[in-house]
Here is the input.
Amino acid sequence: MKQFTKQIKKGLLELVILKLLNDEDLYGYSLIQKVKEKSNNSLDIKDGTLYPILYRLEDSNMIESYWEQIDTTRSKPRKYYKITDNGKTGLNDMLDEYLEISKGINLILNSEVNNNDL
Here is the structure.
């Protein structure tokens, strides 16, 4: 069952990351925290999962990164990620596809539940 959950999460993380970056620019750790917060702790992304997705999104020009040092007492600047126009278009396409697929899955699952109730 864990493998099933893992595959579902893995397939949706690009969508989730793009959605969060559409709201605001974030650095890696803040993305991890935001995913946890917005999902009521039901999604927990590890560094080893997040960064390959960020690199893939950056390579496909859906996001871009920049360095910024907010706190002058910090020794290192943080690498922030922001969604590009290409990423916004991709996000809208992904959302449309996700909603269409989830609608179909819900129809199937709900009909199965209703048929089992008979």
Notes: The mean pLDDT is 91. Residues 62 and 87 are 4 Å apart (CA to CA). The two ends are 27 Å apart (CA to CA). Strands lie at 26-27, 63-68, 78-83.
